[in-house]
Design brief:
Number of domains: 1
Structural class: mainly beta
Helix content: under 10%
Strand content: over 45%
Largest sheet: 8 strands, antiparallel
Shape: globular
Number of strands: 8
Number of helices: 0
CATH architecture: Sandwich
Order of helices and strands: EEEEEEEE
Amino acid sequence: MKKTEVSQKKAVKKVRFELVTEPGREVFVAGSFNGWDPEQQPLKPHSKSGAYAATVILPEGTHEYKFIVDGNWQIDPNNPSQTPNGSGSVNNVLQV
């Protein structure tokens, strides 16, 4: 009898990250899903009011993240789910 491998693909979902801050800022999202690269995933302004957004395709599971605004790391004020990050602050947690 021959054994066959069953590949298990993880489901993925589109996740929209949004942040409202002052207009004219440079905004990114970094997290466990992109190697914490502070410039890999920019958020685009979608109005002149300071609203920024990006849609990221993430695999199912738990992800930690933070926003970077003009080089300064900050938590997502709209996500109360947080965990200590070992650097003396916290990261936001997202379950996909």
